[in-house]
Predict the 3D structure of the following.
Amino acid sequence: MSRNGAHISDSSTSFRLKNVDWWAIILFLGLAIFGWLNVYEASYTFDQTSILDFSFRSGKQIVWIGTALLMGSIIMLLDSRFFETISYVAYGAMILILIATPFLARDIKGSMSWISLGPVSLQPAEFAKCITALALAKYMSRYEYHLRSWRDMVVPLLIMGVPMTIIMVWQKETGSALVMSSFLLMFYRQGMSGYVLVTGVAAVLLFIIVIKWGILPALILIAVFTLLYLSRAVYFHFKPFSRVKPKILVPLLLSLASIGFSLACNTVFDHLPDHQRSRIEVLLGLKDDPQGAGYNVKQSLIAIGSGGFTGKGFLKGTQTKMHFVPEQATDFIFCTVGEEWGFIGSSALLIVYLFFILRLIGIAERQKELFARIYAYCVAGIFLFHLTVNIGMVLGLFPVIGIPLPFISYGGSGMWGFTILLFILLRLDAARAGKM
Amino acid sequence: MINDPNYRRRYIISAIAIVIVAVFIVRLFTLQVLDDTAGEKANNMSLLRQTVYAPRGLIYDRNGELLVYNQPIYEVTMAYRQMGETFDTTAFCYALRITRQAFEQRTTDIADRKKNPGFSKDVPQIFMTQLAAEDIAPLQESLDKFPGIGIRKRTLRDYPYASAAQVLGSIGEVNKRDIERDDYYQSGDYSGREGIERTYERVLRGEKGMEVLLRDNRGRIQGPYRNGELDIAPVAGENLTLTLDIHLQMLAEELLQGKIGSVVAIEPATGEILALASNPTWDPKILVGRQRSANYMELLNDKTKPLMNRATQAQYSPGSTFKTLQALICQQEGAITPSKLYPCSGPGSTPIKCTHHHGSPVALIGAIEQSCNPYFWCAYRDMLEKDGYGKNNEHFRARYKLWCDDVRSFGLGSRFSDADISEQSAGMIPTVELYDKYYGKTGWRALTIRSNAIGQGEVLVTPLQLANLAATIANEGYYITPHLLKNDSMLNHVHHTAVDQRYFVPVKQGMTRVMTHGTGRHHALPDSIPSAGKTGTVQNKGGRDHAIFIGYAPANDPKIAVAVVVENAGFGATWAAPIATLIEEQYLLGQIKRKDKKQYISTTVLNSNVKKWGTH
């Protein structure tokens, strides 16, 4: 029915200040400014005095924030239909750019994802998330589309999988590619079975058990679950007048699949690239490598831990300032927060972030148009995924996967990409009132 | 969308986000609040707590002459963790002009926790020490090429005079025991090892300071931490002024050249030690810096034992100088009066022979002048037998005990516990118990211990104690603890002897006659300055007699008391008396008029094994 209301009024696509979600904008600005302070702290040296010195990262970051706001404003002035209209075209162009990128890119730490445009380097993968989300939203909001069975998942999974594969295999930028798996959250909201998420989590747990303790405990665990289920089935089978008819075939196939997965884990693990394998080994405590793969995380934990309850104070951190923590202005920016702002500051940041994501979910739920809601859930998923993986990595809970903390980490592509992502949503949201 | 069947899933999605953030906050809480080790780990990495050494106090003599001062040296430190894999060992060795083997050896030794228990990869370890400014210059210029390497400035001792080595002592690296005993010290610190440096270690060393520096991930110093607000400034050590007169000290050492022996000179009125010389000796410079350990081993292995401060540690029989003390005690205990006469038959006397024939019988003054052995035997016997022996020898033993106490009241038989001299021997005054043990309670008589009468028995004294005896006689009954630091509070350390002042008069007269008519008559002071003294010639089993002399001058108003011992030299009159009177002459007149005598004594070699180390 939303489709019906789409053309009722011209005002539906116009920009109205009172319809803008100012809460989201306030939270966004708060995060960006707090991030900017921390970029200043992380790249602070003794010779440098001004936070606005443009030859330093803090100075550049304010330029990124300013230009990102400009882009956000432009987006707010565009027609809200614009994004839906161009989404397929943009998607096609994006695929071409992603394929072309490695030919134009310089090799930065094994990654072939950066394109230099004069003084600035951009990472097209940062914008791919946004465009893929638009394309998914467009496809899944078609009138005739319903997510009912796995067959309905094929096209959306392809829309999502193609750029993922290009970014991961062709550009060797695993982190950015994995971010798109956050769209599963949107699929779930749109009706995908919850078992897919549960199965995903179970697969990860099984993988950890196999790698850390070997195949035998994994098999025992599978056997225990299978027997428990079977005994339940037998119980209901012989129980008089029972209306429950337990399934036997599918669970047994699931058990067999689990066994196969467990057996495959080691093989897959052995074929991972060396740096990824050692990151996982260090995380699981199988390898102690304080100088190598474990170095970043160890330094990260020391820096955060040394912040204590109240932190060392603005510009007074020693671990970050003395460069013990690598990538401290980008992926490991949270170390600076932890060291200088302490438990108070870092948990406050996490709570603000949580409010921001909950706000996005709230915005998503009030959309009357399916396109806007699907897109909104993609945006919320992306931010939640970045937060989870980045903070999990910095706190030593996840393996090291290099993705930034949106609005906090230093970087132009990220700042622009996340701002565009957010403001498209805010633009769509601002148009909602006209479509009652 | 009103009938959206999946509407409730928004709550599950929100719950997932809340749970994730909650897990992170719990994790943060354990890292930042519950676990307090991270702060220490962080500080170990990023902060360098560098000791700032305090300048050690300078040492002056009584006339303000500088005796000990500081020279700057440099040491190279190495923080292992910061050096990293890419450390350019070749360039480093080249800059310090050391071989690669030396580098490997030293780095292995430092990391060996058996040899270096305090080893830590984060704390800079001393790689090389005691380098001069020119040795360090090439490294200093290229220091930023070597992560983890630091240069620290320290000071070592230097000495304008090649003199007073045993008195001043030296400083050396603290050992494990020092560190355990006093937590002020850390491995690599210096502390006073002997002499004044040891006695006044706590005054001289001052207080170390500390600098807190920021260090980056490659070990490079980036500046002070928090603008130095945690730094502790060092407190310089206090300067000391000694009672020594360096020129008198040097004269004493010059006169002892070629001989084994010692000279002690004390100002009687104050107990201040004016000279404390022991030969063989060395130039204190040779125990400084990198040559220290080699030279120290050489001194340690020398059979003439230069490291022993003979002036305070060597113990000798006092010989005839002891007769002065016998004369005092025997009067005090009522055995003799100055007019009491005893006969002497010269070398034919029994039970103790006299060395020569002289007028007989003799009274007290004559007996001191002539150093009459039979006189002092008789006086000692009468003193001990005054109450008879008693049924179980108890009267005799009580008298001996009295005698012992009287002798001890002169500072003999024990160390001067309130003196600022670390290296001292006690000497020995045999106790009643010792003789009881040796002979049985009833098995010993005056005759048994007759050798004590003339200072040849079991009695042992140090040259310092002898000089103090001379000072006590000069003071007529009391002494002030001999000491080396100029310090008026020592004037309170007055020790009164058991002998009344009046008994000193005839003894002093006898000692004055020694210098005019007796064994010292060839060594009278010029300008008719009256002096007093007593020679001693101590038989010893090992070889030639030790020559001993005690005395003071001027006799009528004593300003200086001296004791001299020259080992295996022969007559006290020949070798010890001239050295003592030359010291008195220099001190009282400010110059030596008996130049031939000084020349003769200082150039005569009595022991060919004696050498002086480090003299140029």
